[in-house]
Every structure is written in structure tokens, then in C-alpha cells.
Amino acid sequence: MIFILDDIFLKRYVKVFTFMDNKEEAMKKRSLVSSVLAITLLAASISACGSSGNTAKTDAAKEGESASGKQEEGSEAQATGQGDASTATVVIWSPADEKGIEDWWAEKIAAWNKEHPDKQIARQAIDRADSYAYENKITTATTSGDLPDILFVDGPTISYYAANGTIVPIDDVYTEEDKKDFMPSSIQQNTYDGKLYGIGPTESSVALYYNKDYLDAAGIEYPSDTDISKAWTWDTFYENAKKLTTKDYVGTNIIMDKGEGLIYALEPFFYENKADFINEDGSKAEGYVNSKQSIETMEYLNKFIQEGIANIDPVKDEFLNGKAATLIGGSWNIADLEKSNLNWGVSYYPVANDGTAVSPTGDWTAAITKDSKNPEVAKEVLQYLMSSENVAEYASAIAKPASRTSSYDKMSGWDEGARKLFKWQLENTGKARPSTPSYSVLSQGFATAALNVFAGSDAKTELDTVAKDFQEDYDTYYAK
């Protein structure tokens, strides 16, 4: 069994050893604690849990490792970025992924290395079977100064790594024309303190899926997938979900997961109600995450749970298996639904009663680290990997929305149906999650608050706690 020390624990642990008079010293202590994030205990009778999908990803990575990471074909020096003195090797770390993506890496790296014998790419695909192996490796490397040249990280963590000096600005990597070609939400997600720190090949979005048969039985008209003015409003969503609820299935599913999925999938409801989680510069949560509008929004969402319209513990694939009439679901759900026999449709993310529309965004992104031995070559590699054509091929390989508008000209299926809707949302209503170095505290705090509210706790009390914990973390480590 592996116990993970989360960011809130680290914060409190460091406080045991310092009065926080010296923030620089506090940060050093926090970094030291971070280097021992995973504590392994002997527990012969207990095995760690992981999703079945990770096994496939690990196997795919192993199949493509020699081609993409040069771990077998190349020398140990090349794999670690220390090759011939005349050769600049750019080392990339990214999570092990599905076979289609591993094949993409192998093809792109081989093509680059053939054309640039003096500027080589070596990638290490890192397994995330226990969910934290990748992040723990980054933590250890940050402490020892052994980070790779290019590092892939989850989008919302860009501000954390930027504020802590782990990654460096890359504004000069792309022209202004290139930046305009990327989805606005991608630029927003990867910008911290006015500087661009990362860019990724794909995006994501969330919309409202519905079971056509169940809506037909309830006499409910399908929401539009081409005209957002005919999307379901908050009131319509609630009333229809209530009407759709039967003894055999619930009216909707609003619980994507009980972690990051809560803030990712539900935050647009808050934005639509004119509620921000933090202020513009990411330094304050008091009066924002616990504002009157935020409390109203949490209470609105809680009605679905308290009235039995949605489950706090949804069964696996609840919508796909006909146990929920509608679903607040992601763009990635399309692939499974297309393979199913379900008679389904999709419409826009529910809009506020006044028509205000916001939708989730975000995905993994690539950044150049402080320890890069070849930063200028790393910039060239980043330009190459995130070209319009390469982004199109990457996105197609994993069936995700592309981060570049021009990439869709090279992709099929995104000019009609569900995919067209998700693309439209990204271009018109997409908004990134909050940008703040204390994001992990905010995300974990919000997830805990939402689940507590859904279990019967007071919304204001829970959101006050989120604001308090956020402020304590930010003021301790990042306030200037």
C-alpha cells in the first residue's frame, strides 16, 4: 500500500517545523517533504488499486519504448540526455499512454532524429498505474535538479510549476499568429502571471448527453445540438431531470468522479452564476469561492442529489448502461457511445437562465524545465511537436479535440454531430480552470466541500473552509 501526502498535508507538516517567518526557508522545507511523497508500508494482505485502463497503457508504452524513448536502441547516455559532445539531446518526460499515442511518439521522434542528427529527441514514457508515480518522479527530480528538457504536466498545475520556478516561459516559441491558432482556453490555461509556460496538443470539453428513448417516453423535446439559444437552462435541466427520474434510472449524472472531476465538470455552473473561485491574480479566495453566488450554485447542484434526481455514488458507466437519463459528460465519452446500442444525443452544457454559457476545458500540456541542458533546441522540438499537422495526428490518434483551430482542417468527423458541438464550445464558451499556484489546495478543498454538501453539510460552512484553507496556503508560500 502506498500512502500519498497531499498538498494540504505538506502545508501542515512544514508548519510543525517552522513559524513561517522566513518564506524562502519554508519553501525549502516543503520541497524536502515533497521528496518523500510516497511512503511504502509492508502490507502483505493489502494490494493497491488501479484502473484497468492503466495496464493497457503500460503495455502500449513497453511496446513503443525502444522507438519513442530510445531506451533499448540508444545508449544510456542518450536516454538521460547526455550524448556525444556534438549532439544536443532533448529529453522528454510524459505519461505512458494508449497505443495510438505511443505510435505517434515513435513516428515523430524517428522522423525528427533522422532529419537532425545533431539534435536528437529521447523520450521516457512513465507509467501512472498508481496515479501518483509520475508526479512523484517530478517532485524527486525537482529537488535533485534532474528534470528533463521538456515535461508534460496536467494543465491546471501549470501555475504551480511556474510559480515555483520548475518551468520557464515559452512566449518566444510561438509567433502571435501561432498563438491565435491555439484555442483561447489553451492559452488561458497555460498562462501564468502574464507569461505563456506551456502548450499541449489536445483539449477537452463537457456537454449534456441524453437518452433519446427516455426523453421520448417522458414527452420531453430534445435539446438542440446546433443552436445554443435552445439549450437547456438551469431550470429546464432540473425540471426535466426530475421528470425523467424513475424507479429504474435517475434523471441525470453530475458526478464525473470524486476528485478533480468535480471542479472540472461543475465549475462552469459557478461561472454562469457570476461566481469566480478566486480573484483575477489568483491570490484570494475569500469572497469568491464562498460568495453568495457560489453558495447559491452549490445549493442548486445539491438539489439533484438530495431529491434523488442524481446519485452521489453513480454506478459504473451509469448513462451508458441505461441507469441515468442524462449525463454531464466529456468529449471522450463519444467513442464508447458510438460503439454502443444506446439511442443517444448530445446538447450544449446547460446554460444559466439568462443565457450565460460556459463550458469546461483543459488537458495535458508540454513545458520546458529550469534544468533543461538544451533550452534553445527544446524550443525547436516544441515547435515541431505542436505543429498544426502533428497536433491533428495526435488528436486523431486519441479521439480528442485538437488544441489548434487549423488542425481540424486535417481531421475528419469534427464538422458534424457531437464532435462539432464540442469544437464549437471550445471556440465560444470554453473557460479554463482557475490559474493559481495554490490550485491543488483549491481543487482538493472544493471536491471535499461538494461531497460534504451532497452528504448533508451546510454549503456556506463548507465553502468558507475552502476559502480559509486556500488563503492559508497562498499567503504562506506565494504572497509577495
From TrEMBL:
**Per UniProt, which keywords does this protein have?**
Signal, Transport
Here the segments flagged for biased composition (Polar residues) are 77-86
Annotated InterPro entries: SBP (IPR006059)
Ranges of biased composition (kind: Basic and acidic residues):
59-73
Q: Name one GO cellular component term.
A: ATP-binding cassette (ABC) transporter complex, substrate-binding subunit-containing
**One GO BP:** maltodextrin transmembrane transport
List the Pfam families.
SBP_bac_8
Region Disordered: start-end pairs: 51-86
Q: Which domain of life is it from?
A: Bacteria
Listed GO MF terms = maltose binding
| Protein family membership | Belongs to the bacterial solute-binding protein 1 family.
Could you tell me what this protein is called? ABC transporter, solute-binding protein
